[in-house]
């Protein structure tokens, strides 16, 4: 599996790209995509995923191993993504991204948000005594809004995603999701999966692309199971050329485009 | 029916591997388990294969034609409707019983090879044939036991069944191998005794050794020995079709393709 290298030298696996882009659901989709790509699981027309081998053979990550374990008996496409997204292995990936400071710890992100609100209320109350106190209210409110709007993804995380290259169909899933589109072509088509299968995943509206001149990413995709990005939109415009290094390529199309930051 | 059209090499269609079956090169025909299909709501994959002109043959597992209970005509009717829905030239089931006394065995049970049991089987087969729109082929089963007081060998039993009912034979070479391993029957004698001109097609399947017992699992690779029995059969007659059955633990597309290629190699060896 290709590991994209960013400008800062930060290496991200496809799962990490998926997680940073749209959370654990997208990371789970990405792991499943890699397994399909490698022929380690098969998906039937009615969306049942089953492992080709019964011993987790071929798994390269803990999340892939978990998915293979789930798929020893046929499991619905959406169920396996959801299960993987809520797995211990996914929590470990989340922790890993926190440790690398690509994501912010939820506690740090949320701590103190209420403090500015309290200050604002106190300033309003003091405004009844002396109007000068009211001048501080807009500042407190703006600080409050800034705190609420802070993204789960860190600056380093955004930077790492900025130049992620979707070199193959697995990365196309990481960036756009199975329900996304690459160059107006459904990502699902790259895996010969019908829309009825990928639509099993809950639809999520992706953040608008930062640029529309880079090949066309998805406007929306089904990034299932919420997001480690919290309420943030993890922006990444990943201009890329899908060079189809494997047999399971994007069919020669350039799958560049803004890596639409996943919703939550 | 004058004869069976050349079917080629096929594979059992199962919903878990529907896309695999669609994509595999060189699949000349498929077989569907009739009980798993609903009339009026054929799987998209089966419809697609039919549109491609791939013959689809319904295979039943629940008629229990060897049983002493009355034949369930509802099941026969369903089989016939599936045959009509897919435009099949024939249907098939097994020489076995699967229920008795209101209980389902969950397994294809061998029939006692007595003349009394043959009479029952013949009556049931004739009743089924009268209610089916297409010819019926019957398959030899794998057995882990032989009923006592058998009067006929398996080959003789099937030969007389064909003679009296004009049914076709679906020979499962994996079952022949399993019976040879488990109860000591002789596949070559079987092939000597059955009317090979009534051969509809052939099943090939995998299994696994479990101690001294060979389990005809349909969930493991096809053994070379099973291909050896196919080879023996092909040396005597050109089978109209040969079909790979895989019911569980599906391997990679590549492995399935390899098994089909191995089967085709055996068949072609005798066609050259």
TrEMBL record, chain A:
Which InterPro entries does this one have? Ser/Gly_Cys_C_dom
- Tell me which UniProt keywords the record has, alphabetically: Membrane, Transmembrane, Transmembrane helix
Highest taxon, organism lineage: Bacteria
Compositional bias per record (Gly residues), positions renumbered to this chain: 253-264
Q: Does the keyword Transmembrane apply?
A: yes
Q: Where are the transmembrane segments?
A: 113-146
> What are the Low complexity biased-composition ranges?
220-252
User: Which residue ranges are recorded for the region named Disordered?
Assistant: 205-264
Name this protein carries in UniProt? Uncharacterized protein (TIGR04222 family)
Q: Which organism is it from?
A: Lentzea atacamensis
Q: What is the lineage of its organism?
A: Bacteria, Bacillati, Actinomycetota, Actinomycetes, Pseudonocardiales
From TrEMBL, chain B:
- Where are the membrane-spanning stretches? none
- One Pfam family of this protein, by short name? MbnB_TglH_ChrH
Which NCBIfam families has this protein been placed in?
PRK05409.1 (NF003818)
- Name of the featured protein: Endonuclease
The record lists the lineage as: Bacteria, Bacillati, Actinomycetota, Actinomycetes, Pseudonocardiales
């Amino acid at each position: 599996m290709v590991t994209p290298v960013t400008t800062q030298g930060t290496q991200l696996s496809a799962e990490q790209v998926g997680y940073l882009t749209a959370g654990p659901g997208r990371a789970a989709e990405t792991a499943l995509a890699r397994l399909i790509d490698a022929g380690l699981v098969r998906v039937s027309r009615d969306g049942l995923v089953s492992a080709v081998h019964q011993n987790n053979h071929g798994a390269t990550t803990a999340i892939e191993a978990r998915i293979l374990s789930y798929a020893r008996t046929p499991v619905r496409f959406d169920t396996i993504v959801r299960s993987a997204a809520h797995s211990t292995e996914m929590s470990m990936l989340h922790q890993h991204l926190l440790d690398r400071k690509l994501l912010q710890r939820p506690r740090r992100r949320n701590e103190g948000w209420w403090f500015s609100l309290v200050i604002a209320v106190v300033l309003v109350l003091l405004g009844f005594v002396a109007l000068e106190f009211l001048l501080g209210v807009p500042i407190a409110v703006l600080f409050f809004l800034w705190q609420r709007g802070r993204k789960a993804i860190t600056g380093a995380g955004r930077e790492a995603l900025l130049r992620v290259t979707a070199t193959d169909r697995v990365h196309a899933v990481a960036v756009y999701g199975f329900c996304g589109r690459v160059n107006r072509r459904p990502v699902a088509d790259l895996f010969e999966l019908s829309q009825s299968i990928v639509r099993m995943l809950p639809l999520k509206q992706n953040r608008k692309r930062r640029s529309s001149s880079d090949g066309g990413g998805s406007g929306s995709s089904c990034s299932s199971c919420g997001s480690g990005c919290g309420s943030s939109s993890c922006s990444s415009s990943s201009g890329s050329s899908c060079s189809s290094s494997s047999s399971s390529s994007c069919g020669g199309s350039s799958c560049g485009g803004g890596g639409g930051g996943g919703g939550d | 029916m004058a004869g069976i059209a050349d079917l080629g090499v096929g594979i059992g269609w199962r919903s878990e591997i529907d896309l695999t079956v669609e994509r595999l090169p060189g699949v000349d025909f498929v077989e569907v388990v009739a009980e798993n299909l609903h009339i009026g709501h054929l799987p998209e994959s089966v419809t697609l294969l039919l549109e491609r002109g791939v013959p689809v043959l319904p295979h039943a597992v629940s008629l229990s034609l060897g049983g002493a209970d009355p034949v369930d005509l509802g099941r026969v009717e369903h089989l016939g409707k599936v045959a009509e829905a897919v435009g099949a030239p024939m249907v098939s089931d097994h020489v076995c019983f699967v229920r008795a006394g209101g209980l389902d065995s969950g397994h294809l049970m061998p029939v006692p090879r007595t003349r009394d049991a043959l009479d029952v089987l013949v009556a049931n087969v004739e009743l089924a044939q009268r209610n089916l729109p297409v010819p019926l082929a019957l398959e030899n089963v794998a057995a882990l036991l032989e009923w006592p007081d058998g009067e006929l060998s398996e080959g003789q039993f099937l030969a007389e069944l064909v003679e009296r009912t004009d049914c076709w034979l679906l020979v499962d070479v994996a079952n022949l191998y399993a019976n040879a391993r488990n109860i000591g029957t002789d596949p070559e004698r079987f092939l000597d005794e059955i009317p090979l001109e009534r051969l509809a097609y052939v099943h090939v399947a995998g299994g696994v050794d479990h101690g001294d017992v060979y389990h005809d699992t349909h969930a493991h690779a096809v053994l070379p020995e099973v291909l050896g029995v196919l080879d023996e059969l092909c040396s005597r007659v050109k089978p109209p079709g040969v079909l790979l059955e895989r019911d569980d633990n599906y391997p990679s597309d590549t492995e399935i393709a390899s098994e089909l290629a191995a089967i085709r190699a055996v068949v072609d060896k005798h066609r050259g």
